[in-house]
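Hi U.,

Before I forget, here's the chain from the pilot set. I'm dumping it here mostly so it's searchable later in email.
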Amino acid sequence: MSNRPSSQYVAWLIAGTVCMVFLVAVVWHFRQNASPAQQLALKASRVDLVGQMQTALFSSSESEKSAVLAITDKDSQAFADQARAATAEVERERRELNALLVAGGNQREQALLAQFSEAFAKLQRIDEEVLGLAVKNTNLKAYSLLFGDAAGTLAEIDAALSRVISKRTDTPDAKQVILMAFGARVGVLRIQTLLAPHIAEESDEKMDRMEASMSKDEEEVRKDLGGLAAMAKLDGDADLTTAASRFAHYTEIKTRILALSRENTNVRSLALSLNQKRTAMVLCRDALNALAEAIFNEPIAGVTYGRPAKPR
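Structure:
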């Protein structure tokens, strides 16, 4: 397959370049021959363009946060699309402003726009990572499994083992049955209680320790269920068979939960949004504020902005 750009793409690229050059030439000519009133109008258009960039940047940030906090894939994707659209608008306006400053701005204004452009490029890279993680919602899916299928299966195991105990309460082996059945019930419950903090955890090392503890509990549950199955009077017991089969299903759910938890997309996207994204956003905002002020304070012959031309 050829990687060469299509003729239509090349045509658009050439047309865009020609338009940009034409715009620069027009603005340069206008600035060189404009009256103070016309120069003031040009200044106002540049300040207004910076304001539009600030608005679009804020809109992008708000949509990004909504994508991170949304609880469904559909909502996360919708907000992520809005964030990307607003970011694209900032980029379009940045290019337009750059053309105006090349033709009619001073070095300080151009330097401030370059400063913004650098910060904005970093912000875009962070945004793409945040949004790419946010739309996966793996932590939310893990919680859904934990409090849905896993909790329901745990209840079935508990009920089945309770019936096993109730049938053997008046038999000589009642104490042995109760100890092993309760041991299995408690072991599954311990696994269940460790899954929630595992889903919320950011550290791989702490996740490793939790998983090691869960593995030990799982071994104990299997040992207790195996001990019950080895008792002659429980051979073929329907409730014990149910408990064993539901525990096998529970371990499958647990494996899925741990895999989703390890991806950690909600935790990671939130951490990025609250840390790196916030820092990059402050740099972009400060650069735009300084740029707007620099453009506004750019002197125009005969214009004093309400101040005396020759103060005493």
